[in-house]
Amino acid sequence: MIQLIRGFKDILQPEAGLWQHIEKEARKLFEIHGYQEIRLPILEKTELFARSIGETTDIVEKEMYTFTDRGGDTLTLRPEATASVVRAYIQHKLSGTEPVRKFYTIGPMFRRERPQKGRYRQFYQIDVEAFGIASPYIDAQMILMLATLMERLGVTGISAHINSLGCPDCRPRYRETLTAFIEARKEQLCEDCLRRKDKNPLRVLDCKSESCRKAMAEAPELLDELCAPCAEHFAVVRRELDRRSLAYKVDKRLVRGLDYYTRTAFELQTDMLGAQSSVAGGGRYDGLVKALGGPDIPAIGFAIGFDRLVEVIAQTRPPEEARPEVFFIPLGEKAMEKAFDFCMQLAEKKIAAEADYSGRSLKALMKRADRLAAPRVVILGETELQKGLATVKTMASGEQEDIPLENLVERLSLP
Ligand code: HAM
């Protein structure tokens, strides 16, 4: 038997119902806030990701699904959506008439990480991006919108972490201080950090290895060394979150795994998924549009790990199997035709009805009705049909009544 690829998965019912529910709530909320859907390709030129996410990030160094296609182009299955949204924004000159553009996009991403709970090689993101707004109000709006979505979905056990990663004015200065600090402790670093300390010293702060954590315990923090405009920006973001009583933690070690960030960075974290703590992550990336060849336009965004969000919700409220509201048991050919008609009429009235056309016995079909957990069962027996009647059984009470066929749809429309 051919099995699916490691790190990939099928999403079956009843879980798929939960995916739909989340997606519906997300779309509704984003659209009220002026975000519009954008649909993008899954394959892009490799260079797009290398130049945006950063050559020395884990994603670009070792996790991308990259191949040469038959025409000789080097292509990559997108590991995230931001780079593609930026590419589309530049390519279609969306900044021209109205630089403020707000988008969301939902779909699969690919990273060849080691699969484990909450970590897959094909996973899904609900991605949101806003272009053309430098003001910290949009930072606060995004974080609050994310928190509102969690609230609407009834998510518990999640906390918001925020930090500022500075700008091209203050970060290089801090980088120097940090590099000197790291150099003095390089014997204690793990292999990964030794390799990335020169090109990407901030990542050392984020390393999970015990020895790196110890070595970096007293490291200087970027948040304490921001330039005045960055500090002011962060203060306004905090003030707006405070004004709306959002609980959050200022997390000076939050650096994110992608290189394009500037200023505000944020994550929603949980301890419900073992080692995979981040359910959503994002931040400002004011230099990226320009770096990819577009105009100098600020931007900010976030992505929710769809798979992780589903898992967090399912842990507290397991999704339920969808069930028909009415289940028809037709006994005989004539009855089947009637049951078919009734199902179609009920569907018109938005009532989920199903019929069994297998021709099995009443006893077998009552068992199936139990399995499906339909609250009402309609038995169309031969003698009843001849009298123009159907038997409606309410499963919870066991009550049974005969209803004239012409009143049946109306009767089933009532609670
Ligand atoms: P990211 O932190 O790399 O950010 O990913 C965002 C979210 O995707 C993570 O918080 C996590 O929930 C989920 N995720 C990442 N990798 C996996 C995986 N292997 N399996 C399951 N879930 C995963 C970005 O991708 C940025 N593009 C976010 C952003 C948008 N920043 C600005 N705009």
Structure in a nutshell:
With 415 residues, the chain is of the alpha+beta class. It is built from 16 helices and 16 strands. The chain folds into 2 domains: 15-170 and 226-316, BirA Bifunctional Protein, domain 2 (2-Layer Sandwich), CATH 3.30.930; 326-412, 3-Layer(aba) Sandwich (Rossmann fold), CATH 3.40.50.800.
Write up what this structure looks like.
The chain has 2 domains: 15-170 and 226-316, Bira Bifunctional Protein, Domain 2 (BirA Bifunctional Protein, domain 2, 2-Layer Sandwich); 326-412, Rossmann fold (3-Layer(aba) Sandwich). It has 16 helices and 16 strands. The protein has helices at residues 15-32, 46-53, 58-63, 82-91, 136-152, 171-183, 191-196, 202-205, 210-215, 228-243, 288-291, 306-316, 333-348, 362-372, 382-386, 405-413, and strands at residues 36-37, 43-45, 65-68, 74-77, 101-110, 122-131, 158-164, 248-250, 262-270, 278-284, 299-305, 326-330, 353-355, 376-380, 389-394, 400-404. The strands form 3 sheets. The chain has an 8-stranded mixed sheet. A 5-stranded mixed sheet has the order 13-12-14-15-16, sandwiched between helices. The chain has a 3-stranded antiparallel sheet with strand order 2-4-3. Helix 1 packs antiparallel against helix 5 and helix 5 (136-152) packs parallel to helix 10 (228-243). The longest helix has 18 residues, at 15-32. It starts with 14 loop residues before the first helix and ends with a helix. Residues 80-82, 111, 113, 119-120, 123, 125, 127, 129, 257-258, 278-283, 285, 301-303, 305, 307-308 line the site of histidyl-adenosine monophosphate.
